[in-house]
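Design request, tokens follow.
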């Protein structure tokens, strides 16, 4: 669902080839090279898959097992057509024989299930040996597609859980008995591959991926960057603020931190360097803002649909509760880049460099597909699938008014093909996430983990939150947004629910900390992609990005300890109060990390500011009062120093 893979603004040149950056840090971009007739055939298959998904999700009333297995069969087929076994230079129009074998066998196993769905359901758990073999081959073929399109981290996690199940996790005395049970549970039941993640993916996420492909072709990404430049580009450190605003807007429908970083970063990072930002800071600002796109409503990297299904609330409910935390997150980054600009004395763009706002306002019609989508979903006038389908039609109509980005019949076909290709990674990751969640449920490991952390934390919720945060960051490294959340929802969210945290707050908490794994060393893919564009040190970039994204490490604690931020059991006054104190707290912490407010801050002021900020963030009247007092002391000292009335 990434908006922009290449810089569409010709007057700004990225410091290196963007395709190479994407291929290095985003496995989804490492595809086979098809030319001529083979390319036409592959495009037709991908576009047909998109049409199949639209038909099934909008009109068909198939047996669920038939719908899901046919969907996964398509994913396996396309996965081997699109993705090679390893990175590197690819031969044009070449697919090795063993990939053909894997593709045919893997697709065949799921089609076997499709054509025999009724008899398999009636069969219960008594499977013949060849059916066990079919289940093993099907599972391995899907896992291999995930490895090619997503990467190894999620595969390693899944493999560890399966090995645990086959060794110590199940009570069945024989290996064949354990294998039979595992294959039945993970392949033939709706508790493994065909569980909630792949179900939600096939029903909801696919239509939004196709919508994203059409929206990209309207030129809205370039519009977001230009409008952000026009509004905030002229302020101190303007290009960094452009990165924050543009990434927040792109993130509303983008599903990839890396693609978002490379897309808008190809424009904003060179501009930031040009105005005086250090390469590491420029890359970190873009990476942290682009990663935040995954928490920005209405799509939230497609995890919003999964969360609604897991928690059992309407999708619009999830979107509403996500607004305030997302705003605070981006406010934290905006504050940090502003303070850095002031500290370094950086200017904004000149009037000559800024796009004119009035002509840009004429292009606001490009926002109409998003407005229609949000309206239809928010008012529940249409189902989520129909709302996305209508938004696709609106995107096509809107493009007719943009001569440069008009969606012709040919481009409609290309958008359908792009949507079909975009589904492979998400669906494969959801399938493997289902394996992980199913194994955890099957072995009872979830209860073991929950009881262990609850016992370790005692009655202290803050300790449980901290331990859960560490689990989320480790398990989320290198894992795409949707699969990331599925793993967190199965393993970590129940821990917090057991400790008394409301279910929605618990799921938001684990979602946030799974996402920041894209910024947190050592597997900080978004930060590394930004560093490649900025020609900066990758590790320094990742550390700086973590500092800039401090809001993502603080805000989840706020709504976990005080769910008023998520509009849970609260009043308007409480929401206003917690919003103000949290914003001041994030400001104080950001200032402490930057070492600058109105003037350079010595170490003791940074400590006071950090402590005061954290106390403001922690809910409670006493902590708020102490926090305000501490922050006020630092502010007064800084003002006096600036006016030369005292020495520090």
């Amino acid at each position: 669902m990434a908006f922009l893979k290449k810089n569409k603004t010709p007057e700004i040149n990225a410091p290196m080839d963007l395709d190479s950056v994407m291929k290095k840090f985003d496995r989804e971009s490492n595809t086979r090279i098809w030319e001529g007739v083979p390319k036409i055939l592959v495009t037709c298959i991908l576009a047909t898959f998109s049409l199949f998904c639209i038909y099934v999700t909008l009109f068909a009333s198939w047996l669920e097992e038939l719908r899901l297995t046919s969907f996964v069969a398509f994913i396996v087929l396309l996965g081997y057509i699109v993705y090679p076994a390893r990175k590197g230079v690819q031969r044009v129009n070449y697919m090795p024989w063993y990939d053909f074998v894997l593709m045919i066998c893997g697709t065949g196993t799921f089609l076997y299930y499709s054509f025999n769905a009724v008899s398999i359901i009636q069969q219960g758990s008594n499977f013949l040996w060849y059916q066990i073999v079919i289940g093993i081959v099907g599972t391995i073929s899907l896992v291999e597609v995930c490895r090619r399109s997503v990467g190894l981290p999620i595969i390693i996690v899944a493999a560890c859980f399966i090995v645990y199940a086959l060794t110590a996790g199940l009570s069945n005395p024989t290996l064949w008995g354990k294998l039979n049970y595992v294959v039945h549970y993970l392949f033939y039941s709706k508790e493994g591959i065909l569980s909630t993640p792949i179900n939600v993916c096939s029903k909801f996420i696919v239509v939004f991926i196709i919508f994203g492909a059409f929206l990209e072709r309207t030129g809205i990404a370039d519009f977001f960057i230009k409008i952000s430049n026009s509004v905030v580009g002229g302020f101190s450190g303007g290009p960094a603020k452009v990165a924050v605003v543009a990434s927040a807007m792109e993130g509303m429908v983008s599903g990839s931190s890396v693609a978002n970083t490379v897309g808008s970063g190809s424009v904003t990072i060179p501009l930031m360097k040009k105005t005086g930002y250090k390469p590491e800071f420029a890359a970190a600002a873009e990476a942290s803002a682009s990663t935040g796109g995954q928490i920005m409503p209405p799509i939230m990297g497609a995890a919003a649909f999964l969360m609604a299904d897991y928690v059992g609330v309407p999708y619009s409910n999830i979107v509403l509760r996500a607004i305030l935390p997302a705003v605070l997150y981006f406010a934290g980054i905006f504050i940090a880049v502003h303070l850095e600009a002031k500290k370094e004395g950086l200017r904004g763009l000149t009037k000559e460099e800024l796009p004119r706002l009035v002509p840009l306002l004429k292009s606001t019609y490009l926002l109409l597909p998003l407005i229609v989508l949000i309206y239809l979903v928010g008012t529940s006038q249409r189902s989520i699938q129909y709302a996305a389908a209508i938004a696709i039609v609106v995107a096509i109509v809107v493009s007719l008014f943009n001569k440069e980005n008009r969606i012709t019949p040919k481009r409609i076909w290309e958008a359908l093909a792009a949507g079909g290709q975009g589904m492979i990674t998400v669906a494969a990751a959801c399938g493997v996430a289902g394996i992980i969640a199913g194994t955890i449920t099957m072995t009872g490991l979830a209860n073991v983990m929950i009881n262990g952390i609850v016992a370790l934390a005692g009655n202290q919720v803050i300790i449980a939150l901290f331990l859960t945060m560490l689990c989320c960051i480790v398990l989320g490294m290198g894992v795409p947004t949707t699969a990331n959340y599925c793993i967190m929802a199965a393993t970590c969210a129940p821990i917090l629910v057991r400790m008394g945290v409301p279910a929605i707050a618990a799921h938001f908490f684990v979602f946030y900390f799974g996402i920041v794994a894209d910024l947190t060393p050592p597997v900080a893919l978004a930060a590394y992609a930004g560093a490649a564009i900025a020609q900066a040190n990758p590790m320094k970039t990742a550390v700086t990005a973590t500092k800039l994204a401090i809001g993502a490490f603080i805000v989840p604690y706020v709504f976990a300890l005080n769910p008023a931020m998520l509009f849970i059991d609260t009043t308007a006054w409480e929401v206003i109060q917690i919003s103000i104190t949290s914003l001041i707290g994030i400001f104080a912490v950001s200032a402490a990390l930057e070492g600058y407010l109105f003037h350079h801050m010595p170490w003791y002021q940074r400590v006071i500011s950090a402590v005061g900020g954290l106390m403001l963030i922690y809910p409670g009247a006493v902590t708020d009062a102490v926090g305000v007092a501490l922050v006020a002391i630092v502010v007064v000292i800084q003002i006096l120093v600036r006016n030369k009335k005292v020495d520090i």
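Comment from the thread starter after seeing the answer: thanks! Residues 18-202 form one domain.
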